[in-house]
Amino acid sequence: MTATPARHTRMSDLPASFWWLWAAELVTWIGRFVVPFMTIFLTKHVGLTAGEAGVVVSTYGIGVVLSSLVGGILADRLGRKTVLAWSLILSVAVLVAIPSVQGSLVTAAFLFVYGLFNGAAGPVIITMIGDIVPAAHRRTAYNYNYWAINLGWAVGPMLAGYLADSNFSLLFYGQALLLVASLVIVLLRVPETRTSITEGSSDVGPLSSSLEDVSAPPLRAGKGITAVLRDRVFVTFTLVMFLYSVVYNQSTTSLPLIMTAQGFASSSYGHLLTLNGLLLCLLQIPSARILGRWSRERVTAAAIALTAVGVGLQSVAGSMTVYFLTVAIWTLGELGSHAQAQSISADLARRELRGRYQGVYSLNFNLATVVGPVVGGFALDHLGARGLWIIAAGVCLVVAVILTLTSGARNQRVASLAEDDEPTPLPQDGDPAEDDVMPVEDSAEDDEPIVTPLACEVAGLTDPEPQPDWTRTAREQGASR
């Protein structure tokens, strides 16, 4: 029997609820002012060393790590929208209080509390996308979500740089205002996507018998977060991406310190971040047409290897021209790695534990916000900028090799889970909304079975006519910074 190749994912294939969630993500990331500029504030205005500033900023990351784990569990139990809304409300309350505090210890404490409230939002949004978007369109949906992050970073850093040069307090108030706008969108337009587990299933759901037939380690039953931590395929992928995230974190912690030491203004660093966001926004859609011809695994590994080149060249950067070049190179690496890896993690997750899975996966970036500033600050104090960037480039190369060697187990796991993966129906007045969830079957023609790019990829097959992910996107990337 000849199967018809899958058509492109169109914007209309993605539910209306996804686009409202996308808008809330965009507004949030436009206002990501505070954390990227905290190291500059602590060194220039408080008088801390690079290492001390890194320790203070890392307290924010500790809060994020804790909230991402707890937030994932609460999202599975209490509801995605409830957790997301309270995350935004409490984050605003802490942000408006930070400018009035004094002393590094008190600042560290408030940053920890801010991270504790703010960190839950990211994994909850990723979970909601997995709930409402069919698997065949999920790669494109995560690309669009990443694009929202990039659009925000194309505007936010440049604005934040000028605000920081004027008055650092404006960063906190400005970010709080934009979080309120995002909260309004969530409350009015985004539905709850969590549904009850189907009758007859346990809290963690039954295990698929198909998992026993693949060489990748089978999933084990368990309750709470332990069920996720026993998934060796998923945990291995998360740990490897953590190493990459530690390197990526240096772009928002060590890079501004190095540029400040070289005599550049805060606005110059903001221009680099704006270049990063603009390039991602402009190149994401056309690059998706090309990158869609290859598997996500190959694209991710190659992109991280390219990141090593850009990071390594920063060891000789001393002018804005060279910095623009290096940022452009590692931006291309970010272009091919972040959204691809996010969609892989979503497809590795069991549906009934999706919130917990995304909470654990978010650790690869959130834990890096704890480790990254400390490692970067220590390296700057003892090895200098050149030593930091050379080591960072080497770590990226190691990550690319490990991802390549372990890709087979992930492909097998995704294939075994894809059969039972269906989008969550979103109830409205007792009935699912047809414009909110569009089943994959609607795209079939002449009753012939569809072979989606995801199915071909995980089975190791080549699509007869490669269909790239043309509508896609781009940084919540989360993650993202």
From TrEMBL:
Keywords: Cell membrane, Membrane, Transmembrane, Transmembrane helix, Transport
PROSITE patterns found in the cross-reference section: IG_LIKE, MFS, SUGAR_TRANSPORT_1
All residue ranges annotated as the Ig-like domain in the record: 432-481
Matches recorded under InterPro entries: Ig-like_dom, MFS, MFS_dom, MFS_trans_sf, MFS_Transporters, Sugar_transporter_CS, Tet-R_TetA/multi-R_MdtG-like
Ranges annotated as biased composition (Acidic residues): 431-449
Transmembrane segments: 20-41, 53-75, 82-102, 108-132, 144-164, 170-188, 233-249, 269-287, 299-316, 386-405
Primary subcellular site in the record, as a coarse category: membrane
Region (Disordered): 415-481
Domain Major facilitator superfamily (MFS) profile span(s) in chain numbering: 17-411
Membrane topology, as annotated: Multi-pass membrane protein
Localization (cell): Cell membrane
Source superkingdom: Bacteria
PANTHER family listed in its UniProt record: MULTIDRUG RESISTANCE PROTEIN MDTH, RESISTANCE PROTEIN MDTM, PUTATIVE-RELATED-RELATED
UniProt record similarity statement: Belongs to the major facilitator superfamily. TCR/Tet family.
Full protein name: MFS family permease
